[in-house]
Specification:
Layout: H1 17-45, H2 59-84, H3 88-117, E1 119-124, E2 129-136, E3 143-151, E4 169-174, E5 178-183, H4 190-217, H5 223-226, H6 228-258
Antiparallel strand pairs: 1-2, 1-5, 2-3, 3-4
Helix pairs in contact: 1-4, 1-6, 2-3, 2-6, 3-4, 4-6
Length: 259
Amino acid sequence: MDIPYTVEARPDTGVYNAKVGIWLFLSSEVMLFGALFSAYVLIRVGTPAGEWPHGWQNLTLGTLNTVVLALSAITTLMAWVACKIRQFGKFQFFHGCTLLLGLTFLCIKMVEYHQHLNHYEIHLTDGRIADGDMLQNNPKQDYVVIKGRYAAYEEDLYDLRAQKNLKETEIKIPRSQIKDMQSYGPWHNDYLALYFTLTGLHALHILGGSIVIGYLWGPGRRLWKTDPERFTNRVEVSGLFWHFVDLVWIFLFPVLYLT
């Protein structure tokens, strides 16, 4: 049995079924990310002055990821155009580039996550705070080693933009002097909880889109031989989702990295 309107447009909407479905799905995605962005705004404006983190993200990696996604938006469009003009070889090239760029984005994001999870805030018994990247944390040893600095107050750790020339050294801290220590994971504070939630959900969308693109580039391309128009529509639908994911990052980047 043939499913109607997989290629030709529906008379009531003017587009084929899959395109109707993806626009409805993206509408729900707008509501999902809209709610999370609203939570970010409400929590931020409710935070006392001077207690919201600034400069905690790796701007170089964030900018690189922005360029990577911008390039992937171009390559996924070129892949669809190649299908429209019936140049399957070019489609494979551009769609393969999109897949590689998406995986590159995920790899860079994993590097950023590792940096956060390896960065510790250590409260000492004398009231000072040691903050930096963990170099050595062997439970069998009675000390930990970080590359960082001491701070007298926690407020000194919030705005790193004003401390660009801050000198970091290797610090050896006896465990007997440690009151508590915590990595910069989503449990650390509201800002990092929002950061990991927003970027983690976005990364899952990148992963999902990459799986679909990989399928169309690999086993799914068999449809091209029997129904190239329907295959082209599938490429267009996956491209619409990919462009939405790119657009979300355009909002995430300034909110999390530049403010």
